[in-house]
Write a structure and sequence with these properties.
By secondary structure, the protein is α+β, with helices and mostly antiparallel strands. 22% of the residues lie in helices and 34% in strands. The protein has 2 helices and 7 strands. The strands form 2 sheets. A 5-stranded mixed sheet has the order 1-7-6-3-4. The chain has a two-stranded antiparallel sheet with strand order 2-5. Strand 6 and strand 7 form a beta hairpin. Helix 1 packs across helix 2. The longest helix has 9 residues. The relative contact order is 0.32.
Length: 74
């Protein structure tokens, strides 16, 4: 499984934005449908909210890609 790290610029990043930043989704619409189709896990749980706030330490899995959310100074 490929792991991609996203460093936060602010306190959090929204799930849809994280999928775009990791180049898993080409657009917000693509991210929305991936999420609504139940293809995205946040910390091991299926997440259906595109606006879910992700903080440092959270992990997102979509297909064979894991996104690790890191603090800006990690």
């Amino acid at each position: 499984m490929e792991t991609i790290e996203i460093k936060l610029r602010d306190e959090y990043i929204k799930l849809g934005q994280a999928l775009k930043a990791a180049h898993i989704a080409d657009s917000g619409v693509d991210a929305k449908f991936m999420i609504l189709d139940g293809k995205v896990l946040v910390n091991g749980q299926t997440e259906l909210q595109r606006g879910k706030k992700l903080h440092a330490g959270d992990e997102v899995v979509c297909g064979n890609v894991k996104i690790r959310i890191c603090a800006h100074d990690d």
